[in-house]
Amino acid sequence: MTTNFCFRVVVLAYAMRRGFIWRSAPGIEPAGTSGSTLNCLKQRWNGPSRRVYLVEELFVFKPIVLAVTVLMILQIAARSETPPTLPGWELTTPPMTDGDPGPGLRVRQTAPEYAGTDVHHALYLPVDWERGNVYPVIVEYTGNYFPPSNSSGKVADANLGYGMSGGRGFIWVAMPYVELGGAENAVTWWGDIDATVVYCKTNLPRICEQFGGDRSNVFVCGFSRGAIGASYIGLADDEIASFWKGVFTHDHFDGAKTWNYPASDRASALERLARLRGRPVLVCSMNLPSLQDEYLNEYLGLARFTFLSVPTDRIFAIPEGPVIHPHTDLWMHKESPERERAREWIRSVIDE
Questions:
Q1: Are 69 and 58 a contacting pair, CB within 8 Å?
Q2: Pairing of strands 121-124, 106-109
Q3: Which fold has domain 87-350?
Q4: What distance in Å separates the CA atoms of residue 221 and residue 183, rounded to the nearest whole number?
Q5: Helix 63-80, helix 3-18: angle, nearest 10
Q6: What number is the average pLDDT over the span 275-295?
Q7: Model confidence pTM above 0.85
């Protein structure tokens, strides 16, 4: 929805509410010419003509109707208007909206177990989605709240999975980290780790059943915190680890360094990675040499690793649009050789 459209709606609503736009009855001055709205209202009711037109009835006597009408207009526009694509960008992530899922729409969903809370995930059905067909699935975990790289930590602002799919051929789900207490999503680190793992184990099969997700072709991915989370959450136990056909990450990796949360050490990370049992992993990073040389090259037997160096500082003329730092999950929204290699990787894994 464009800013210009919103501005027009607000200006029109205010003008009608204040009485600047109407057909006045004889002998009654328009609001704004003789004092307050209340005084003008008295003039209308006590003046020579007692006629009160529908527009006056609607916008002066019934302000709640006005509010509901405007909200309905905004909701319809938000669901129907395609967000603009930045110059030089091929993709723009669809906004998360309320409403029913459908082709090309990205909607907020609350699991039945969390009804009445603010815990939610985001579901995107591809533009070519048709009921009865099956589609590979990308499950994404977002980065931390980190303003220097324009990362909000919210599922609404996930981008990596959409960049990989291009909006076609894949169901894309941004899963939450459930905050301690279970009332909202966590935007920094893991919240309640057990609840976060259970949320995925409960809702991923449900989503696949309802919308045609191919359980034999499900990928887990993440950026920054989410790159760690693809393992820290996605390989937390044998059950959730069994969901994945493959894994792809961008910037950071489980076990590369010790953080200030439990079991972040390398030994614990290697236990989680062992649950891959040789499955394919695409490791993307703008600092790939250090990640390989100082860590993963020693443990190549744990998975079928593919490494991809992503020069975000060359892909973007930073600052460029929402990209204000090289540490970004938007790098596949522009055409590049790196994006093509990443998409070749996921196609080859699906074809196995």
A1: no
A2: antiparallel
A3: Rossmann fold (3.40.50)
A4: 25
A5: 170
A6: 96
A7: no
